[in-house]
Amino acid sequence: MTLRLNPVFARRTLVGAALLLAAGLAPSASVVRGQNDPGEWAVKAPLAPRSLLLDASMRDGRLVVVGERGHILVSQDSGQSWIQADVPTRVLLTGVFMRDGRDGWAVGHDEVVVRTRDGGLRWEQVRSAPEEERPLLDVWFTNERRGLAVGAYGSLLATTDGGETWEPRSVKEGDDFHLNAIAQAPDGSVYLAAEAGHLYRSDDRGDTWRSLESPYKGSFFGLLAMTDGGLLAFGLRGNLFRSADRGATWTRIETGTEATLTAALELGPGRFVVAGLAGTLLWSEGEGSLRLQEMPDRKGIVALARPDEGNLLLVGEGGVRSVAIAP
Q1: How far is 315 from 95, CA to CA, in rounded Å?
Q2: What is the C-alpha radius of gyration for the chain, rounded to an integer number of angstroms?
């Protein structure tokens, strides 16, 4: 299978390779083509918290981040210190979802799925399909048994037994667009962000999907479903849109940047922050306006976490770092 020529074809996978190349580093074999010998475990590395990390999930005061070479790191003190987990793979891990402080799943290249039942310290591999040559990019669970994993070329896998087995499904017959991210809304709806301007919504926890009208034709790398019913969609070249009607119609939000946008987090009623490559942060300031902040190191941000009221953790190129939340 040959990858379509798109320099950042999915939020968190070739984005990761692009970040390494931008830094003048050669991507590891696991970033480019996968590396998943069943006898191999992620190497314990003192500098793992500074390595390329691509997703984060925080539940019950426990923060779990994942990234290159099978690295999974756990912090119980808001990112001040880290424990590197025991992980039975060295592939690039691209997505993580912690259902609570104990149960969680992570996905990555070679259609790898790993699962933890002790809060992220030890993981077991429950799926690997390197012959498919499709990375998984995000994972989400509605309860301890039912979950979804999505990835390249329209890959959608569903489980009803906590990840023991996975069943291939289709979002829409004939669509093979890269499915980049999953987002759940407070009303229970589930959304998918995809390439080539495609967006999907499910009203039955992922059993069936409907295509949404798209406000543009470029790739979407993420969605943020907010508690006030608003929905943000973001992606290439600084494109950011908001919907107030569950994706039926969209309004463009001017960002003042052409940086690729890769992550977003709600900060309170009507408040949010959007992050992206080149150290980009966009802080909402009311009435649809944004304040652009560019981190001095210009390192790409791929995921966000909020450990406390005053601080934001930036996950991506160079590991995890902290910035004060704008008042």
Answers
A1: 12
A2: 18
* CA-wise closest residue to 19 among 269, 318, 315: 318
pLDDT average, residue stretch 123-150 = 97
Phi, psi of 108 (to 5 degrees): -170, -155
Contact 324, 308 (CB under 8 A): no
Instruction: In whole angstroms, give the CA distance from residue 217 to residue 233.
Output: 12
| CB-neighbour burial class of residue 7 (10 A; exposed 0-12, middle 13-18, buried 19+) | exposed
Coil, helix or strand at residue 17: helix
Q: Cα(263)–Cα(314) distance, rounded to whole angstroms?
A: 10
Look at residue 31 in the predicted model and tell me its pLDDT: 39
SS3 call for 181: strand
Specify whether the CB–CB gap between 327 and 302 falls below 8 A: no
Q: Model pTM?
A: 0.89
DSSP secondary structure, 68-122, as one string: GGG-EEEESSTTSS-EE-B-S--SPEEEEEESSSS-EEEEEGGG-EEEESSSSSB
